[in-house]
Every structure is written in C-alpha cells, then in structure tokens.
What does this fold into?
Amino acid sequence: PSISSRYGSAFLQHADYLAASVTAFADSETEAALRKAASSPEQNGLYIPSGALWGARDIQHMANRGNLAGLTVSMKKAPHHLKLPEGSALATKLADVLANGTTGETVLYDGPVRALAPMAPSNTNTMAAAALAAHNLGMDGTIGRLVVDPSLEAHIVEIEIEGSVSQAGAPPFRCITRRYNPAAVGAVTGDATYASFLSSMLDASGRGSGLHFC
It folds into this structure.
C-alpha cells in the first residue's frame, strides 16, 4: 500500500498504473490524490485488479445509476490464513480464539471497510476493491466482515448487494455471490489468485484516464 501512497500519483504522470494493494485507498488522502491524478483527459489510467471480487463492474454500474443502497463483503478464513499486524486488536482477538479452542465461525470485525483495511491490509484487498466500485457508498459505507473459522480449507468471499427500493412496499433488489478459493495451509492468498492477477495485468491498458477495474 505504501507504494501507491508515495508514488502512485507520480507514476500516473508517465504511465498507466495498476494499484495491486487496493487497501492503500482506505487512506482518504491517498484515494483523493490518485483519483485526481487519473481524472483529466490527458492523464493515464488507474487500474484496480478485481481479484476475488466478482461483479465489480456490475457494482460500479449500480453506483453510477444511484440505485446501490448497500454492500457487504464477508471474508472467511482459517486462522492460519490470516496475516494480522502483531499486537493489533484483531490479532489479540484471533489469539483468544485460538487459545480457547473456539470452533465454528467467529466474527473478528463487522463494520466500515475504511477502518478495517489498515488493521488487516493483507486480507482486505477484495473489500477495498468493492468499496471503490461502490463509489456512492465508498469506504465508509461499504461494510466489511472478517470471519475466522478453523474448519475452513479455503478462502471464502461472500458479497451481498442491495439495491434501492423501486416503489413503496416492494422488496429491494438483492444479489449474493459466494466464492470458494482453495488455499494451502498458511497461505494469505488462495490458489486462484495468481491467475486472476495475471488476467488483470493483461487487461490493464488502453482505456484512457479515470479509474478502471480489470
């Protein structure tokens, strides 16, 4: 994330830029600077890898139309798949789960993505990407849930989208997706991530200025 914070705007003066560590955008100053650097017609493009986020452009289209009312991204992993900063509140909570031999799901965090991303930068890129796609909600309005479950052998991403109510009394539009990505013991990322990132790299060019998902 520090690469985007320190040098992203400078990169965009000379070339398209693929910001791989999307959690950098949780810092509001970094997000504003990068969006500004990619906004004018003569500038290069700022590319965001979709990674584990399926439906990024669909979320973005709903945000563009103003009918995206809610977005929640839940990431579920076994304890050994989490890479949390030592001494952080989340690391302490995870240590308690391990010490107590807790089974089943334990919610480590449930709240705005902006607050979560700095606490778990290695595990929240998907959430940050979703928050960028949902630009009318942003990092503060997009909800992230970090869940630990010792029984899991994969990284699971669940995305719940809620649309605005079209007419009084009618239920809102909802879309729920679930991504199951097998992962080796201790791996921060799953087996499908490498191919996904390569696809994003190959897709990250030629769209001009602005922020694009690839």
Summary: The chain has a mean pLDDT of 88.
